[in-house]
Amino acid sequence: MKRKALFLDRDGVINVDYGYVHRQQDCVFVDGIFDLVRLANATGYQVVVVTNQAGIGRGYFSESQFVAFMEWMRRRFDERGARIDRVYFCPHHPVAGMGRYRQACACRKPQPGMLHDARRDLDLDLSGSILVGDKQSDLDAGARAGVGRRFLFVGGQPGQAEADPAADVVARLSDIGVALRGTGITAEHA
């Protein structure tokens, strides 16, 4: 039986996006993220991070620094009783990437490559899955992959609500819990 996933963008959804966050001292977790992941775990969703990390391609930090930072981040979740099942990242940038990282690839959102990899690796039903992102490229990747429910997390930032009309716009991560429980989204979030 195929499983469902809660796909999370990293910067702007899991942690506050200060730009190319890759050090522990620069990481501030978004309010409600640990509760959301615990709820996803409890309701049978695989929690999968899908993140563009052009800072690698631009030479701001290395892949090994990114991996070490994500291991640290996953331990913070584990300490709070929340589990991230898998992390997928794209280190490429089609224009600003250096060397082998300069390429138009299938993994950089809005392309759906990371979502397709997760589907294959984890035996996922994408139509029954949920994606939470803070940018249109996140939502576009989800739509292209056939993710059934897409949320634009605005965190109270005006202007982002103009995005994908097929996505639900939420200002609090706790609002997504309604969808995880399978009861649908309430009118106040439409």
TrEMBL record:
<dbReference type="InterPro" id="IPR023214">
    <property type="entry name" value="HAD_sf"/>
</dbReference>
<dbReference type="InterPro" id="IPR004446">
    <property type="entry name" value="Heptose_bisP_phosphatase"/>
</dbReference>
<dbReference type="GO" id="GO:0016791">
    <property type="term" value="F:phosphatase activity"/>
</dbReference>
<feature type="site" description="Stabilizes the phosphoryl group">
    <location>
        <position position="51"/>
    </location>
</feature>
<dbReference type="InterPro" id="IPR006549">
    <property type="entry name" value="HAD-SF_hydro_IIIA"/>
</dbReference>
<feature type="binding site">
    <location>
        <position position="105"/>
    </location>
    <ligand>
        <name>Zn(2+)</name>
    </ligand>
</feature>
<feature type="binding site">
    <location>
        <begin position="17"/>
        <end position="20"/>
    </location>
    <ligand>
        <name>substrate</name>
    </ligand>
</feature>
<feature type="binding site">
    <location>
        <position position="107"/>
    </location>
    <ligand>
        <name>Zn(2+)</name>
    </ligand>
</feature>
<feature type="binding site">
    <location>
        <begin position="9"/>
        <end position="11"/>
    </location>
    <ligand>
        <name>substrate</name>
    </ligand>
</feature>
<dbReference type="GO" id="GO:0046872">
    <property type="term" value="F:metal ion binding"/>
</dbReference>
<feature type="binding site">
    <location>
        <position position="135"/>
    </location>
    <ligand>
        <name>substrate</name>
    </ligand>
</feature>
<keyword id="KW-0479">Metal-binding</keyword>
<feature type="site" description="Contributes to substrate recognition">
    <location>
        <position position="108"/>
    </location>
</feature>
<feature type="active site" description="Nucleophile">
    <location>
        <position position="11"/>
    </location>
</feature>
<comment type="similarity">
    <text>Belongs to the gmhB family.</text>
</comment>
<feature type="binding site">
    <location>
        <position position="135"/>
    </location>
    <ligand>
        <name>Mg(2+)</name>
    </ligand>
</feature>
<feature type="active site" description="Nucleophile">
    <location>
        <position position="9"/>
    </location>
</feature>
<feature type="binding site">
    <location>
        <begin position="108"/>
        <end position="109"/>
    </location>
    <ligand>
        <name>substrate</name>
    </ligand>
</feature>
<feature type="binding site">
    <location>
        <position position="9"/>
    </location>
    <ligand>
        <name>Mg(2+)</name>
    </ligand>
</feature>
<feature type="binding site">
    <location>
        <position position="90"/>
    </location>
    <ligand>
        <name>Zn(2+)</name>
    </ligand>
</feature>
<feature type="site" description="Stabilizes the phosphoryl group">
    <location>
        <position position="109"/>
    </location>
</feature>
<feature type="binding site">
    <location>
        <position position="92"/>
    </location>
    <ligand>
        <name>Zn(2+)</name>
    </ligand>
</feature>
<keyword id="KW-0378">Hydrolase</keyword>
<keyword id="KW-0963">Cytoplasm</keyword>
<keyword id="KW-0460">Magnesium</keyword>
<protein>
    <recommendedName>
        <fullName>D,D-heptose 1,7-bisphosphate phosphatase</fullName>
        <ecNumber>3.1.3.-</ecNumber>
    </recommendedName>
</protein>
<feature type="binding site">
    <location>
        <position position="134"/>
    </location>
    <ligand>
        <name>Mg(2+)</name>
    </ligand>
</feature>
<dbReference type="GO" id="GO:0005975">
    <property type="term" value="P:carbohydrate metabolic process"/>
</dbReference>
<dbReference type="InterPro" id="IPR006543">
    <property type="entry name" value="Histidinol-phos"/>
</dbReference>
<dbReference type="InterPro" id="IPR036412">
    <property type="entry name" value="HAD-like_sf"/>
</dbReference>
<feature type="binding site">
    <location>
        <begin position="51"/>
        <end position="54"/>
    </location>
    <ligand>
        <name>substrate</name>
    </ligand>
</feature>
<keyword id="KW-0119">Carbohydrate metabolism</keyword>
<keyword id="KW-0862">Zinc</keyword>
<dbReference type="Pfam" id="PF13242">
    <property type="entry name" value="Hydrolase_like"/>
</dbReference>
<dbReference type="GO" id="GO:0005737">
    <property type="term" value="C:cytoplasm"/>
</dbReference>
<feature type="binding site">
    <location>
        <position position="11"/>
    </location>
    <ligand>
        <name>Mg(2+)</name>
    </ligand>
</feature>
